[in-house]
Design brief:
By secondary structure, the protein is mainly α. It contains 12 helices and 4 strands. One of its GO terms (cellular component) is plasma membrane.
């Protein structure tokens, strides 16, 4: 039986894959540094300790969502349900935190586990339907978007849940070595995903499926199982993001998460992961999320209007997709 490293990808390039990845990540890092330099000149408040800490806290949620999205995009899929699913996981976890029958420690532990488990189950459903019946992931996850949002509204009767235990809320404002605790959780998730994608057979097969799924299947691997696992991982990451959101804003609302899926996809694409699948990296995704966060924060500090901020963010996303398309065409030559 062929091993993943022996598979011949559908797209080849005279430049080694590792060097290509390094060049992409270097370019993204330079773009991020340039963005930081520009906003540092435009606003004296940008590089203050409080604002830097605020940026780290703000991007933590999007990093978690983008990490999960990366697994799905690498296999050539997409998940539009992560925003609504964040709301569903949050209200379920919030309801558990309000249970008087549990001690504070038990309620927090159960809420965290329930949020991650619920996200993973919904991701499992997305992956199963998309893989087993061959339904485009765009359609499946669009359906889950509405299901999750409706379920969140039904669960709470369209009411927000708040007044969580102080021990839970304090995590959202805690810091370690000057870094916000939510951001450290997001970094831990990035590290775990990096190990999985670069140091395991599972990770190599995820890349191989995005390049040539048929070759992976003919090599004797169950592509169905790996694709389902990719969506399940994405759902579990949503559960983590939901908990971080609750600790930061001390509320669980059934209408939260609107547009979260777009920010996550933007971070993945800006980070250099190809929408066609098979190419990209978690480090690139992290840098992409940082660019989104720095751009949003910097535009606020320089007093750019909300409508204009949306337009600028949209232009950046379009440019990232155009650049990705250009890279694909160049690699195919």
């Amino acid at each position: 039986m062929l091993q993943p490293s022996e598979m011949i990808p559908a797209r080849t390039s005279p430049v080694p894959a590792g060097l290509q990845r390094l060049l992409r990540e270097s370019g993204i890092a330079l773009a991020l540094l340039l963005l930081i330099a520009v906003f540092s000149v435009l606003s004296p408040l940008f590089l203050t300790a409080d604002n830097v800490s605020n940026i780290f806290t703000q991007i933590a949620i999007n990093i978690c969502l983008a990490v999960g999205m990366t697994f799905v995009v690498l296999i050539g899929g997409i998940d539009l349900s992560v925003g609504s699913l964040t709301a569903l996981c949050a209200v379920v976890a919030g309801s558990i935190l309000k249970l008087d029958s549990l001690s504070i420690g038990a309620a927090i532990a159960l809420a965290v586990v329930a949020s991650i488990a619920l996200g993973a189950v919904c991701g499992l459903i997305n992956g199963t339907v998309a893989s087993y019946w061959g339904v485009p992931s765009f359609i499946v996850t669009l359906g889950m978007l509405y299901v999750a949002r409706g379920a969140a509204l039904q669960w709470t009767e369209a009411r927000s849940i708040y007044e969580f235990p102080d021990l839970f809320n304090e995590f959202g404002t805690a810091s370690v070595a000057g870094l916000p605790a939510p951001f450290l959780v997001a970094l831990a998730l990035v590290l775990l995903a990096w190990v999985v994608l670069t140091r395991t057979v599972f990770g190599r097969i995820i890349y191989a499926i995005g390049n040539n799924e048929e070759a992976v299947r003919l090599a004797g691997h169950d592509t169905f199982r790996y694709k389902i696992l990719a969506y399940t991982i994405c759902g579990a990451a949503v559960g983590v993001a939901a908990v971080l959101y609750m600790t930061r804003l001390t509320v669980a609302s059934p209408i939260l998460g609107v547009g979260f899926e777009l920010n996550a996809i933007a971070a993945v694409v800006i980070g250099g992961t190809s929408l066609a699948g098979g190419r990209g990296s978690i480090i690139g995704t992290l840098l992409g999320a940082c660019i989104i966060g720095v751009l949003a924060n910097g535009l606020v500090l320089v007093e750019v209007g909300d409508f204009v901020r949306q337009m600028i963010t949209g232009v950046v996303i379009i440019l990232a997709v155009v650049l990705d398309t250009y890279r694909l065409k160049k690699a195919a030559r």
